[in-house]
Structure prediction request, 444 residues.
Amino acid sequence: MQKFTSLTWLAALLPFALSLAGCGGSGPAEPAGQPAAATEAPRSDHASNDSTLVALTAGNAPLDWPRWRGPMADGISRETTWRDNWNDQPPQVLWRAELGKGYSSFAVSDGRVYTMGHNNGRETVWCFDAATGKVLWSHSYPGSLNDNLHTGGPAATPTVDGDRVYTLGKDGQLHCLDAGSGKVLWRQELTDLLDVDVPEWGFSCSPLVVGEKLIVDAGRIVALNKNNGQVIWQTERHRAGYGSPVAFEHAGTPLVAVFNNDALLALRLADGSQVARQNWTTDFVTTAATPIVDGDRIFISSGYKTGCAMYQLADGQLRQLYRNRTMCNHMNNCVLWQGHLYGFDGNSHNARNVRLVCMDAATGQEKWAHRGLGCGSLMVANGKLLILSDDGYLVLAAASPAGYQELARTKVLDATCWTVPVLAQGRIYCRNDQGQTVCVDVRK
Prediction:
């Protein structure tokens, strides 16, 4: 019976994304793999990644949030001019929107907000005005809900690169859209292109842009030409994970880290060749978190009491520094801040026992744990944890290893909230699994 309960909540893995064309409708016919005019498209407080691999994409302001886990791919906002005195003046909802079902998070760039949802057999990519919530454009296409034991809907987060936005649907519908108008520039069906099947819980990888390459984990790791969608390289088949790839540099070589349902991989960005591999086994074949790269160290975590591990990449090997069950990320990522990992340990089907944990990143030692936020999600902003509890409370807490210190909270949503909130330009964007979305104003 216990195994059945866990299986019935495997669906909690879908909002990782961890993660919009043709004004108000389905848009024009979609050219497959068709070339189009291109535009070209920093490193975190804790990491030593090469800035060329984690740089802001062209055209994005420093305080934008143009992709999954933000401009530096670490879940940390460098924004300092937002208002955090919520007890004195509770933040107000600036606008609301209905997206359709799903777990896609938000990309914010150039005054626009991009995300995804599902309604009545169609997926929609949405583009909103960040200030008003007005729909600037949307692009819809047929797509399965994939609601097996959960709400279903898209889980990947759009990626903005200059004047283009890239999205991945549950069935493998990969789109390149004009960021301003939603016009389809090219598309690919990854199941056909790569000869792979749709994973049990659907494709959930948020696309990664590095230079001219667009990288996706889709049952193979594939690098496409971001300008026309043509394949540059692809790996052998594997069981796709539900997290997203991360670019970094090691010993002068650009690499990509991928955590799939078979292993943690380090691949050369140039040709996809394997540098190192560490096999990883989980119950129910579910890995959802995106790898966290800190210099030559890579941290991974899985739910169902699988636990976490820190590896050091050296001489073509991933040497284990520690492994424990202190941090079992069911779906949402930890954030590494000033030498400590902050994240949710535990599974959504037993949400009352899920703990928010602070763990020493160097040793794996637990510093503190706090229950009461359910299987939530978080980011870091201005030295504070910005948390969305799974029952819709937006919470501020100190990002400190000294102990859990809640600073403020406000109720913003109902239903189930598994999608990480996003702070950009003094506004916080939150959604629930039904697609109800709020923009919370915290501008000074």
Observations:
- The longest strand covers residues 112-119.
